[in-house]
Amino acid sequence: MCNACITNAVKKHMISRRDMFRSAVALGAASVAAGIVTARPALAAAHGTVVDLTHTFTPEFPTFDGVPGLTMEQTVKFDESGYQLFRLTVDEHSGTHIDAPLHFTTDGTSVDELPVENLVCPLCVIDIEARAQEEVNTMVSTEDIETWISANGDIPEGACVAMHSGWADKVGDASYRNDADGNFTFPGFSKEATDMLMEMGVAAIGVDTLSLDPGNSADFAVHYSWLPSGRYGIENLAGLRNVPAAGATVFVGAPKHGGGTGGPARVLAVT
Amino acid sequence: MCNACITNAVKKHMISRRDMFRSAVALGAASVAAGIVTARPALAAAHGTVVDLTHTFTPEFPTFDGVPGLTMEQTVKFDESGYQLFRLTVDEHSGTHIDAPLHFTTDGTSVDELPVENLVCPLCVIDIEARAQEEVNTMVSTEDIETWISANGDIPEGACVAMHSGWADKVGDASYRNDADGNFTFPGFSKEATDMLMEMGVAAIGVDTLSLDPGNSADFAVHYSWLPSGRYGIENLAGLRNVPAAGATVFVGAPKHGGGTGGPARVLAVT
To answer: Which residue in B43, B105, B261 has the most chain A C-beta atoms within 10 A of its own C-beta, making it the best mutation to test that interface?
Structure first.
């Protein structure tokens, strides 16, 4: 199936799914008219489960450059002051974190400028764990997207599409970052796949590894195309095996320091 | 109306509201059975508006102790490396941020340990803006809670109850923190009010000022009771005038550094 065919098929899916959403909204309006409690205002009460997609961030958390991404200095002590707090030194691109467009551009959107409507997204999880066990630098491909759509329907506009490679389980081990020879080894997205996701109006991509591009990437093709397009990425996601392939909503707690290129984020899914 | 009366009235409200939620869930189940799209899996698509309750965090953002809470050092430059990033130095309790129980205890819950189900909450906003314009150290009282309940029904278990004092608009001005004589001046919660919220099973409180306690507090009574109870607080909220008193859901993107006493958070409401 050619890419254009897929795109057309996807558009068709999207139209039909939009009609379904319209029906749901209409149903909600009818419910209000009838005096029935609708799910929308009771969102928190109506949700099933909150799933944490965030690793605990520690000075030992693996980083791309191998330098600790966090230090914590206790600047106020409880026994002296009756309360306590820390001063943190944080490298923006460490822990479960955001890559804003400004990370790979000179004038792109900074992390505080990301549109808030792109921080609450339908979550689509593409599972490549089985393949990643054999091919450590494997990439999410256009075929993986096609397979996902066949199984789950359309990828909604404004979605966050996450790669689940199983890598989150390795985070305490050197193999999260390197092979035995010290080469970067982890899965990522292919540029062809993220180009396809761009056409579908996807808002964000996420990976459970150190980089949007695979470990053996020589050109950071995804970083240099996805981020300059104005979209953002999430790296070092956790917990993706605890959410469904489709149907969850992800809340991306991107940091909001002015002019930042990214930074540690709390990422939660609601199923 | 005595506190016990209010508590009983609230319990009664809660029971009836719970029954309404049950009806809503049953309605959802019936919709699934009928092949109709329910709002739950289409959460992100079905929501109305995402409202940012987070101030942009800058080195100039006012802090309790007057010391800048953020510095940013560019450690990788685009013209040298083809990408760019910053190293941040962050005082945990600056910007829009979380107070975890560990901030005012020696062994309480740290910010990374906050239960995730308490980070997605029904949002209740208590508006004391009119009074705060006259009384700069005014407090959310039990009467304010009673008035809110009369107007909006119960405060749901697990809610986040936020004080809207209008202070967020002053954030660029010295009056956000001090009066002309240099005294701390800003509204907060009274201990009596937060004790009542504890009885109602509220998960979190939030303020649009520098502290959960008012500026002229001599004893930090709310900090020393609310936080040791295992609950958390949010300080320096923004945007509360853009959400309804009841009906929104708040996503609290608490940071997840291990053993932290709090830290800057992205807080978003979905209406």
So the answer is: B43
What pLDDT, in 10s, does the model give residues B196-231?
999 999 999 999 999 999 999 999 999 999 999 999
User: In what helix (H) or strand (E) does residue B26 lie, and over which residues does it extend?
Assistant: helix B3-33
Confidence bin at B176 (pLDDT 50/70/90): very high
Residue pairs spanning A and B at CB distance below 8 A: 258
Q: Does A249 touch chain B (CB under 8 A)?
A: yes
The answer to whether B264 contacts A256, with C-beta atoms less than 8 Å apart, is yes
- For chain B, what percent of residues have pLDDT higher than 70? 83
Q: Given CB atoms, is B204 within the 8 Å cutoff of chain A?
A: no
Contact B251 A120 (CB under 8 A): yes
- Any CB–CB contact under 8 A between A54 and chain B? yes
- The mean pLDDT value for B173-177 works out to 97
Identify all chain B residues contacting A93, using CB atoms and an 8 Å cutoff.
85
Largest CA distance in chain B: 68
ipTM at complex level: 0.84
- The full set of domain ranges for chain A reads 3-46, 97-270
In chain A, residues 110-129 whose CB comes closer than 8 Å to chain B: 112, 116-117, 119-122
Query: Average pLDDT, whole number, for chain B?
Result: 86
CA distance A37 to chain B (A): 6
Q: Is A195 helix (H, G, I), strand (E, B) or coil?
A: helix
Map residue B211 onto helix, strand or coil: coil
pTM for this entry: 0.85
Average pLDDT estimate for A118-134: 97
- Nearest CA to A26 out of B57, B253, B231, B31 is that of B31
| pLDDT value for A55 | 98
Q: Alpha-carbon Rg of chain A, whole angstroms? A: 20
Residue B103 and residue A91: Cβ atoms within 8 Å?
A: no
pLDDT at B34 over 60: no
Helix, coil or strand: residue B179 = coil
Topology, domain B97-270:
Glucose Oxidase; domain 1 (3.50.30)
